Amino acid sequence: MKPAQITQPIVAPTSWDDLPYGDNYRRALEASLQPWWPKLFGFHLLKIGALSAELDTESCAVSHQVNVGVEGGTLHVVADPYQLPFANKSTDACLLAHTLSYTSDPHRLLREVDRVLIDDGWLIITTFNPVSLLGLGKICPILQSRQPYRSRMYTQMRLMDWLSVLNFEVLHRSRFQVLPWRRRGGRLLSEHLPAIGCLSVIVARKRTFPLTLNPLKSKSLAASLRRTVGAASRSS
């Protein structure tokens, strides 16, 4: 498997306005996430990165919302996302709006988010979809140095693999905005060809117990219980 960590730094945009058609991406993401915000409950929501900070989350049931990042005009806390200045299990929800697309070590960032999230906490991830018109532009040498083609693009399956290692349960995933230059991304195309949408969204929750039991451990536990029950019945 290709390693996720890279050595060269990535310059992240400080606003959606820094991206071509950035306002279209922002509006599409806000519309896609709108049904989920009322479902989130708790005390603290972390919006990590300048792009996360600019998304409208007023309908979120979590009232205390903190914008965290290195650079941006709407930040509340200026901090390195790799070293969040928050205690373990102190946050109810985290929003990573294209934050992974502009980080050199996504595994480290996800581990840090996992550290600050409470059990059953919410994690929302948005990224660019490599299987899209943007993905085609990324393979063009002329465009590779421009935004948003200079960002890192991950398939949903790869992101889900990373989340499963950290014991997150994916509740929802979608792709949309097939045409970047259209405000609604081409409604018919987005409805019938969502797999090639430029934007990808994953909603997940941190689980305390493994999502799948280890078969060997399950058999060992069952055998131990049978021995215990048998010994108790003989002694009685």
UniProtKB/TrEMBL annotation:
One of its GO terms (molecular function) is S-adenosylmethionine-dependent methyltransferase activity. GO terms for biological process: methylation. It comes from the Bacteria. Coiled coil: none annotated. This is Methyltransferase family protein. Residues 76-125 form the Methyltransferase type domain. Keywords: Methyltransferase, Transferase. It comes from Sodalis ligni. InterPro entries: Methyltransf_11, SAM-dependent_MTases_sf. The lineage of its organism: Bacteria, Pseudomonadati, Pseudomonadota, Gammaproteobacteria, Enterobacterales. Gene3D superfamilies: Vaccinia Virus protein VP39.
